[in-house]
Amino acid sequence: MYVFLTKKRIVTVGLVAALALPATAAVAGEISGSRLPFSIATSGSAEDSDRWNGPSSGHAKPCGDVPASQPNSFSAYIYEDKSFLPDPQIASTSRAYSQAYGCGSYKGTNTGGKYYTKATWSGIPGSRANGYVAAEN
Fold it and tell me: Does this model's pTM top 0.70?
């Protein structure tokens, strides 16, 4: 097969590639202010005091990791901060420490909302490992 490459075709292909770049570069990323670190030396739960705005993507998912090989587990949650009402849970996921980094499913958010992360975890006495949960968009 013989392909004709003209200047017009090269410019068109280059333009299409350049326009496609921002779409592929907009991959999921951690939402600033959503990371909540914790130590697994004792069991516990924590709520992040940082509040972050709903991402412009219109959704977020809970993620986390604990670098340990035990079968213990942790849970990551995303809540919407409602001033004078109970805070609704938006999304959650549970993972074993022995699993690698992972995330739950995307759930809808709105850009005018304020959100925060929460975590619960089981302890391993004497462990020096630290885990974290965060939200991604």
Answer: yes
